[in-house]
Amino acid sequence: MIVAFSVTPIGAGEDVGEEVAEAVRVVRASGLPNRTDAMFTSVEGEWDEVMAVVREAVAAVQARAGRVSLVLKADLRAGVTDGLTTKVERVERLLAED
């Protein structure tokens, strides 16, 4: 499964980079395949391990701000591994054919 999520501290002001970096540190320390872009961090693995990472990332931000917002989107597809890479590679191949 792939989960794309964003966790945002509420009431921390406009610059939330430090709080968001704490969440990303948790994801990267997990050892699971992951990517971070301007809007979301995506992480890939089995349900329990991915959801544990999301929970820890939220807790890391919540430790710095009493209130957080979590947006989460999940792609649940049995038998797929390395989806973070292969899904993007397929689109890039199709674009290269243009």
Automatic annotation (TrEMBL):
Superkingdom of source: Bacteria
Pfam families cross-referenced by the UniProt entry: Thiamine_BP
Domain Thiamine-binding protein: 3-92
Family listed: Belongs to the UPF0045 family.
NCBIfam families associated with the record: MTH1187 family thiamine-binding protein
Name this polypeptide is given: MTH1187 family thiamine-binding protein
Organism of provenance: Streptomyces boetiae
